[in-house]
Amino acid sequence: MSPTITPRQIEIITAAGQLISETGYARLTTKRLAERMQFSEAALYRHFSSKEDILVKMLKLLTSSVRKRMGDIAESEDRSDMRLRAMFDSHFTFFKAHPEYLMAIFATNFMEPSPAIDSAIKGLMEVMREHLRAVVREGQKADIFTEAIPTDTLVHIVMGTFRLHMLQWRMTGARTDVKRVGNKLIDAVLILIAAR
Question: Domain coordinates of the chain in residue numbers?
Answer without folding.
Answer: 51-193
